[in-house]
Amino acid sequence: MRRLHPVPNATPSPSAHHLAERLHSARRRTLALCEPLSAEDMMVQSCPEASPAKWHLAHTAWFFESFVLREFLPGYRVFHPDFAWLFNSYYQSYTAFPEKRLRSSFSRPSLDEILRYRGYVDGALEHLLSRSVHPEALRRIELGVNHEEQHQELILTDLLHAFFTNPLRPAYRPAPPHDEPGAGLLADAPALRFVSFEGGMSEAGSPADGFGFDNEHKRHRVWLEPYALASRLVTCGEFAAFIADGGYRRPELWLSAGWDAVQTDGWRAPLYWTESNGRWSVFTLHGELSLTELKPAPVSHVSFYEADAYARWAGRRLATEFEWEAAAEKAPVDGNLLDSGRLQPSLAGDSEPSPIPGRRAQGQLLEFPAESSPGPAQLFGDCWEWTASAYLPYPGFKPLAGSLGEYNGKFMSGQMVLRGGSCLTPQSHIRASYRNFFPPGTRWQFSGIRLAS
Questions:
Q1: pLDDT tens for each residue of 36-49
Q2: Collapsing DSSP states into helix, strand and coil, what is residue 376?
Q3: What strand order describes the sheet that includes 384-390?
Q4: In this predicted structure, what is the pLDDT of residue 5?
């Protein structure tokens, strides 16, 4: 989810007061997400896609220092000259940087120094926003807030993998209590049905009057044939039926590269599913849970290949990103997002308070559409939804000049688009036009399945 940047002058500059509030909230939440962690936890990097939590803390400060403060705050002095390259991620034209796989070896600077770095950058940002601010500086601060929100999701995604690889399988946070056992999940998922859409001429992409990353521009017209989307996401119980029917042993269901991955990597189930004595369990941020308990919840941590194979097995397909966007554009951005505090895909809200700042109070089950309802449920939150669309530029797309435009356009090859956000995505961060993207074999992200026909 990194490497996405807005088109300059494509949207009006946000107000400094509103932006300062959102900046403060985002910076607080990043620290709050790290509160349950030890210094040792924050050093772990357990897979090539992941980064240590300590590195995320430093990199998000680096972004503001590199692209806002150094350019727009007169007299700004960098916190440490080596941080410019040490905490660079992928910006080749900005400065050299260490290999990503080495991030877990950065025992120095210490966590205390990184926290001082964040405080130093926060103070400078506050000083900048107290002045008359250049509109481009405001746009870059807004970009930095969205960048930080991306890393909030990545902190938790990376920690889940780190704790899964730990022999003790520790929990990031205890499961939230409920008034009754099992009250956090519906007894059964609503019956799967399909919601029809007429198709026709539609528009896709970010409108001009709000924030959007450059890969959401330009807004353009697309033609859609009539189609239908499933009323909800595929559940763990439904995916277990795919496994029981030999889904991972039937090459006719798989794309060639997907079948190669099954054979090479030994896939038998989604990532974090473990079988012992004929019983499946699923590792979550709340620790190990029985699959029986999670059967009505959306299946997560599947690759595009697995999503596509399941759709073939079910006699359906995956939606295109434009079908998904047309269905979601008028839907409220609501659902099981990071603000709910659940931290796992679920069919129910959490009735207990969460320590994460900005969380909305929820105490009711998510409402699913009745037969006469105009749209599908779970469009936002729970799991990122794999689409059938390759990650490609929109008509008129142009990469930005300089370092800020470096890490979007050049990734438009060999990746698939996901839509809708997950249970770890901040609500303020997601929208119908948001395009996430990953290689088709990626499983470490909270990615799930919605069927289409």
A1: 999 999 999 999 99
A2: coil
A3: 436-438, 416-419, 384-390, 447-448
A4: 41
